[in-house]
Amino acid sequence: MDGAPKRRRAADEEEFVYTYDDDTYQPYIPVKQRKQQTIERLGLRARAPRKGPDEAEGGPPPPVHTLLHEAQELREKQRAQGHEPTQAEREAEEERKILEAHKTYRKLASHAELAQGIQYTEPLRRSWTPPRFVRARPAEQHDGIRQQYHILAEGDRIPPPIAHFRDMKLPPCILAYLAKKNIHTPSPIQIQGLPTVLSGRDMIGIAFTGSGKTITFTLPLVLFAAEAEARLPFNASDGPLGLILCPSRELARQTYDNVLAMADALEQAGYARVKALLCIGGISMSEQTHILRTGFHIVVATPGRLQDLLEQGRFTLASCNYVCLDEADRMMEGSFEENVRNILDFLQRQRQTLLFSATMPKKILDFAEQSLVQPVVVNVGRAGAASLDVIQEVEWVAPENKMAELLEALQKTAPPVIIFSDNKNEVDDILEFLLRKGVDAVSIHGSKTQEEREYAINTFKRGKRDVMVASGVASKGLDFSQIQHVINYTMPKDIEDYVHQIGRTGRSGKTGIATTFVNKGVPDPTLLDLKYLLMEAKQRIPPFLLEIEDTRASLGTHTGCAYCGGLGHTIKHCPKLEETQRRTTSHIGRDSGDY
């Protein structure tokens, strides 16, 4: 190699010189130092989150950015801009978190539907359609009818309201039946509700007590059942076509009687016979063995007893395509909700679902709108509002004077009168006191046997007794005609129960009186609820209620409770939520006929 010619650089070739201003310059790093940097970089990369495909390779990984960091940055940014969250904003955020924690996320569907991801997107199709002249009316005319009757309707493709029974294409025998009951024109909930249900739409009905909700969901079901029986007679294995769930035995019995009366009217006019089954606790099912053996179209039930019969295999819900929850606010809370969900597991096909109540808290309303198929929400009064046909009188009465004041209150009107107390022992004490004073009275509460309860209801309905003393079991849904006066011997803790109780009077457009005793034992949030309820109904407010101040007024927040709908408190101080949590913890059921 020594003899090989050496390569010489051309004389005119420029010599390359390193300059520190050159962008491509990279200083020399010893091998040992480069290895150490590589090890450190690999260690950091192993601890850091895995990079996405769009992130550049090489260099140290970016710091982990958590939600906590974002919240801190947002607070620092707000401070830098001179913005601090107001007390109202902090209160609203706290209430939102509480409501979120108590939301019901699981839809009102069977386990099979949830597991298979079955989701119905279109409502059921029924054979009924509005008359042609009703369909031809412009939308502005429909809106005018709703406005005239103070009806709020929300949803997609809302069926038109119909202001006369004769225009609803009802059978003449049903029109005669309604006229016999002195029902000549539909109530607001019926004007919009009946066309909605007859069309096959899912519906959430909100209306004050005594507004005619029961006819809105029973009449269409009876007509659907008669139509189905005419097409193909039912047998024992077919199971019911429709299901109505009620929170108490008394309400279920009353609804069942209404169904039978309409079915009899149809049968006498030559229509197919519609059979119904009553499933409630306290009665022997052997009395209805014939109906179970020959088949039936409609079941009216309390959740506990119905679940028991379904689990025994006495009948199935394979053909059921109509489900109604009466007093839905109560049916979807506590132990009732578990029973209802267990019953829904027996359903095997799409159904039309209806929820009705005088009170519909936002928690349940939001959940229902997610569970139903394109629901139509029909509201003829704020959810939880009292009937404007009830004159509400609130009196401050010391506990030791309540019995004497009760006798005075009974003199305000002629009988019949209902007296409510939230304590079963107190119900018995009041009954004993009235009987000693010569007042013809009966009592009803959850510890009574079914025979005792039915005897009390029947004698009171027939006018053989002037006064009924009742616990909360009779406060929801029961329809006693001609009630002149309701006396709340004890102010309910839950303002919803108060609304239901005073709703036993002032029904079907008649005026009634409600007298309520309060004292220092009633908490301020409940009194504040009562104050706002009286203001909303344009009632006289006694001075002791006017003195109660609402601390939220200074904060500019007055939206009421998102859980129960009460206007005088927030969800942080909701007595209903506290009671629900207490009962959930102690597994105590309500005083009701849930079986």
Automatic annotation (TrEMBL):
**Keyword Transit peptide part of the UniProt annotation:** no
Q: Which residue numbers delimit the Helicase ATP-binding domain?
A: 194-378
| Residue span of region Disordered | 34-66
- Cite the Pfam families for this sequence: DEAD, Helicase_C
Is the keyword Zinc assigned to this protein? Answer: yes
What InterPro entries is this protein classified in?
A: DEAD/DEAH_box_helicase_dom, Helicase_ATP-bd, Helicase_C-like, P-loop_NTPase, Znf_CCHC_sf
Keyword annotations from UniProtKB, A to Z:
ATP-binding, Helicase, Hydrolase, Metal-binding, mRNA processing, Nucleotide-binding, RNA-binding, Zinc, Zinc-finger
**EC number from the UniProt entry:** 3.6.4.13
Per the UniProt entry, what is one GO biological process? mRNA processing
Cross-referenced SUPFAM superfamilies: P-loop containing nucleoside triphosphate hydrolases (SSF52540), Retrovirus zinc finger-like domains (SSF57756)
One GO cellular component, as annotated = cytoplasm
Q: What molecular functions are annotated in GO for this chain?
A: ATP binding; hydrolase activity; RNA binding; RNA helicase activity; zinc ion binding
- Identify the residues that the record assigns to the Helicase C-terminal domain, covering every copy: 402-552
What name has this protein been given in UniProt?
RNA helicase
Q: Which species does this protein come from?
A: Malassezia brasiliensis
Organism ancestry: Eukaryota, Fungi, Dikarya, Basidiomycota, Ustilaginomycotina
